[in-house]
Amino acid sequence: MIYVNGDSWSRNLWIDWSPVDWSWPKQMQDQITVPVLNESVGCGSNGRILSKLQQNYYLGKKFDLVIVALTVYSRWHIPSKNLSTWNIGRYVMNDEKYSFDETILPWWLTNVYDRIEFVYQYYNIIWQINELCKNYLKCPVIFFNAWDTEIPMFDEMIFSDDNNLLKWLESNKSNDATDKIVSRYFNLFKFLQTDRNQWNFEITPWRSFLNKSHYDGPNDRDPHHPNQEGHRLISEQVLSTINKHFPTLYQKFKV
């Protein structure tokens, strides 16, 4: 079985919109012989992906491969009733049933959101998922940067050399951040540097090979998201990436 998790760019469209599901995990399923379990939800956070994957491990699920379609770094999740989550970002807050409540967004932006901390948590979650898959689920994992165009720039600054990392920290620190806090983040990112090359991380976002004709318009079924052809192209790219990293598995999955 292949396990998939992500946000609205990867969700099962049949659940949300109509009896026709053209999401890339479904189109990938049509081209391979193993089942695909897709637990993506709209506006889902990376923290939610980690939580759901941990639950599957606790429940004894077994996977041949895990595919994580990472969402934007600035989202976070709040655990809620019935093993659900509320996901909060810079623009929206909703739960897995698509109930919306944006009343605390101004407070969250003023008192919680911090770019350095949230970018750090982005990579920290990748590290945790990689460790979970390697040491507990005992299966490979591939990470995709689905659509966040800032992450490639951050990645270059953080993981190229120490001077660039320090420059990035200084240019993004909050007004009340002390030298001690900056030093702490420097050491945290230095730890992640030692593991960065071990991740199967496709950092170039899918936006890079999609053009205007590959998105739904404002009056279409899924505005500002990939349309059926866009999801087909993503599916092809995901399958190609599986073949690149794990050719033996790819041969096993092929129809």
What does this structure look like?
- It is a single chain.
- By secondary structure, the protein is of the alpha/beta class.
- The chain has one domain (2-253): Rossmann fold, CATH 3.40.50.1110.
- Helices cover 46% and strands 12% of the residues.
- The chain has 10 helices and 8 strands.
- It has helices spanning 13-16, 24-29, 46-58, 105-111, 115-137, 151-160, 162-172, 179-196, 228-245, 247-253, and strands at residues 2-5, 36-38, 65-70, 76-79, 85-88, 93-95, 141-145, 201-202.
- The strands form 2 sheets. It has a 5-stranded parallel sheet, with helices on both faces. A 3-stranded antiparallel sheet has the order 4-5-6, covered by helices on one side.
- Strand 4 and strand 5 form a beta hairpin.
- Helix 9 (228-245) crosses helix 10.
- The longest helix has 23 residues, at 115-137.
- It is globular and about 55 Å long.
From the alpha carbons, calculate the radius of gyration and give it in angstroms: 18 Å
The CATH architecture name reads 3-Layer(aba) Sandwich
Order of helices and strands: EHHEHEEEEHHEHHHEHH
Mean pLDDT figure:
93
Give the count of helical stretches. 10
CATH class: Alpha Beta
Q: Biggest β-sheet, characterized? A: 5 strands, parallel
Keywords:
255 residues, alpha/beta, five-stranded parallel sheet, 10 helices, Rossmann fold, globular
